[in-house]
Design brief:
Blueprint: H1 2-24, H2 30-48, H3 54-60, H4 65-108
Helix pairs in contact: 1-2
């Protein structure tokens, strides 16, 4: 169990650092950085202190902490997939507008 906890905390620390680097490179915004830091912080607390989730486990009628982590993980994956979908649609619209603008500009030339 201790080896799994150490590995999980090292993973979370790596993700903290990767999030910070992404923020510094302006790949993500401050809100996204804070969101991911909260997510990795909560993950670290759950890994180090599994009994800290007992209140939520009882209220949600979930048997194990790992089940809660899995459910929350799937929820986060769907949030990221949806955000990625929205960003892809936004970029597709920008590309279409740009192509239309270039085509119209080229059509005006003799």
């Amino acid at each position: 169990m201790i080896l799994l906890q150490v590995g999980s905390v090292l993973f979370a620390l790596t993700m903290f650092y990767w999030s910070y680097l992404s923020y510094r490179r302006r790949t993500i915004r401050l809100f996204e950085l804070l969101f991911w830091w909260c997510a990795w912080g909560a993950f670290s607390v759950l890994v180090l202190f599994p009994s800290s989730a007992s209140f939520f486990l009882q209220k949600l009628q979930i048997n194990r902490t790992m089940d809660l982590v899995t459910i929350v993980g799937f929820m986060l994956i769907w949030v990221v997939v949806f955000a990625d979908h929205l960003e892809t649609r936004r970029l597709r619209k920008k590309i279409q507008d740009l192509v239309r603008e270039i085509a119209l500009r080229d059509a005006e030339r003799p």
